[in-house]
Input
Amino acid sequence: QVQFVESGGGLVQPGGSLRLSCAASRSIFVIYIMGWYRQAPGKQRELVAAITSDGRTNYADSVKGRFTISRVNAENTVYLQMNSLKPEDTAVYYCNAVLGRINTIASMTPDLRTGVWGQGTQVTVSS
Output
């Protein structure tokens, strides 16, 4: 299994930006889809962005147009650029391998045979 370490979270004002990083313990070249999830207090973990190994992406409607996912396989790293942040983006953000079809993000599930959840990184959007 691949372990992930997320970083880059913090406290930011509404409208601000953050860039999250996800470092994998070994090569992610063979992982077809990588994704960023988030979990807000009292809510289920949700997939907000996904990217295939050949660069196709998809986003949850709540973040579309504001978040950008990218991956650098040679660095075993996945990024999430978050712009125009809103208080409702406040959550712990995680990355993991994902199963499913990239064009149906709502039906995608974490590939827990491949990836292990990390500790996540806290993002707080507040004035």
User: Anything to note?
Assistant: The chain has no helices and twelve strands. The radius of gyration is 13 Å. The CA atoms of residues 58 and 102 lie 6 Å apart. The first strand starts at residue 2 and ends at 7.
